[in-house]
Amino acid sequence: MADRLARLTSSMDRLYEFDREPVSADKLQSGGKFAGLFAGEHVAATEFVIGAFFVLHGVTARDLLLGLFLGNLLAVLSWTFVCAPIAVRTRLTLYWYLRKIAGPGVTFLYNIANAFLYCVLAGAMISVSATAVGLLFGIKVPALDAVLPTSVGWVIIVLVLGVAFTTMAILGFEKLSRFAQVCSPWIFVIFIAGALALLPKLGVERNLSNLWQVATTKIWNGVAAEGQEKFGFWHVLFFAWFCNLAMHVGLSDMALFRYAKRWTYGLFTAFGVYPGHMLAWICSGVMVAAVGRQMDPGLMAFEAAGAAGIGAVLLAGWTTANPTLYRAGLALQTVTPNWPRWKITLLAGTATTVLACFPVFFLKLLDYVAIYGLVLMPIGAIVFAEHWLFPLLRIGQYQAEKGGWIFNWAALAVWLGTLAACFLLPIPLYFKWLPGWFIAAGVYTALMAVAPVRRTA
Amino acid sequence: MKTLLAAASILSLVLCLGAPVLFFLGILPEASFKLALLLASLGWFFLATAWISYRKKPS
To answer: What is the DSSP string of A10-45?
Structure first.
């Protein structure tokens, strides 16, 4: 067992060897580069679904606008005050920093959890694309409460798309990444074009005089669809805040911010979240209202923008599933030593395609996004505590690295214990992560503080 | 050439936005708007791909 763990650790380290050293001063990037990077990063296929779901959950227009504005602001501040400062001080990726703190064993488990979560997310993106292709063949999108595949046609389309996306990811990840750069601004434009084109159908006058009245009575009218929970301001605010929880509070964007000259570059994330997680969600809300509140991204985009709309849904799914498949493959590579890249991507793609057949993952996307952030959040809290609180409390840092531990059992126990505590907390899913973060940071600090040998001299 | 490709790419993206504005204002009928959007989109993909490829060529 110990040999096996040592081999896994060694292969995992080789995989991430290229970014083992802290970023040197000559490799730091300008603020403009960060603004450009984030501007193209937050418009994905899932935006077609998320904004539409706010309408189906009966959010009012006022709650939506205020919630999205403040929630995205909190997300930007989380990148700026939580993630970026640690990245700029350490110049390391989360992988290497977590390895120092929690040991390679915990880092390995974190990678596996990440890989599985990435596969589900990529699966949801394939499902969204499948709604566009299904429209061409007259295949109905599963109902909102569907869990299992509802028709053979749906399964066939998902399988065909899954095979196509996986094959293309295997054949040319780099080329597709460049293609995604071309797609990103265009997809964003299609969101705006689609919403604009459907405004007359909703009864908006050409001089926009009744825009607010239509918005409050026909789009975000506060009436939830049958079987959907009613959402209010706090749901929207928390969703906008935690939809990238793994990246900011979860610290996985340390990989990007280690190249920042200053921690204030976290503010540049506003260039991504406000267009992608506010404007695009508003646009998809308009689109779903105009198609009779049917959760069918393909139909929404086709009604709004014709063939270009179908192309946008398909390409949004493809270009965002591709890097997700890549990241899942990278994480999975740790348990499949010496496997070539194509084999790993094939494994991740197969798992993703099977998951995509189950419509529950895209029809319950909002809940899934909450769970995704929640699962990875305690690791961010542990790293935050070790980085900021330990020096203040004179608790020795990086005990796992100094002691050569495979597992920092305190970190592992806090990770799992926090998830159990969050599960038991009698509050709605969307709000669980916030008390969970304080539980994780507090308990981890306390556990490491009570071990006398671990205190600094 | 690079500047020309950049300008043409951005112009095609502006046309992608202009078409729905004209439709909303009642200047373009729906079929023409959707055709214009499709053509401007194809223009964007063609020109922006060429622009990015040009940018990546070693000088």
So the answer is: HHHHHHTGGG-SPPPGGG-B-HHHHHHHHHTTS--T
